[in-house]
Specification:
The protein is α/β, with parallel strands linked by helices. The protein has four helices and five strands, in the order βαβαβαββα. The chain has helices at about 10-25, 35-45, 60-70, 100-115, and strands spanning about 5, 25-30, 50, 75-80, 95.
Length: about 130
């Protein structure tokens, strides 16, 4: 089972994403903001991170930069944004504009985790060769 970290300051969004991903066979954990997201990433093992980009304090850019500067820099990151036209940089592997269709998110998740081998504790270090 793939392990996914959801980082979003809006609890309703996080809860919906967690339930949706669980329904499709993913194990999803929620971080209620950027600071907690970084802490959970550092102490956990995740195959994918989904983060809101615009959050107060430590935002999705900060979360993505932290991941890209870590020893697990290849962990795929999906950024979710209500203002995707304002995005810059290449910290994110995939950006999904709000509002989005469920299938759009599921397609992105499936595409990004298809290059990893899941394990019970996460598979950040088991990237398959293309």
């Amino acid at each position: 089972m793939y392990s996914i970290l959801i980082v979003d300051d809006q609890q309703i969004v996080s809860d919906v994403l967690q339930k949706l991903l669980s329904r499709f066979g993913y194990h999803a954990q929620i971080a209620p903001g950027g600071h907690e997201g970084i802490r959970m990433f550092d102490t956990g093992l995740f195959d994918l991170v989904i983060t809101d980009i615009r959050m107060p304090g430590i935002d999705g850019y900060d979360v993505a930069r932290h991941i890209r500067n870590s020893h697990r820099s290849f962990t795929p990151i999906i950024g979710i944004s209500g203002t995707p036209w304002l995005l810059d940089g290449d910290e994110f592997d995939w950006v999904i504009p709000k509002p989005f269709r469920i299938q759009t998110l599921l397609d992105a998740v499936k595409n990004l985790v298809s290059h990893t081998v899941p394990s019970e504790k996460g598979s950040y270090d088991k990237t398959l060769s293309a």
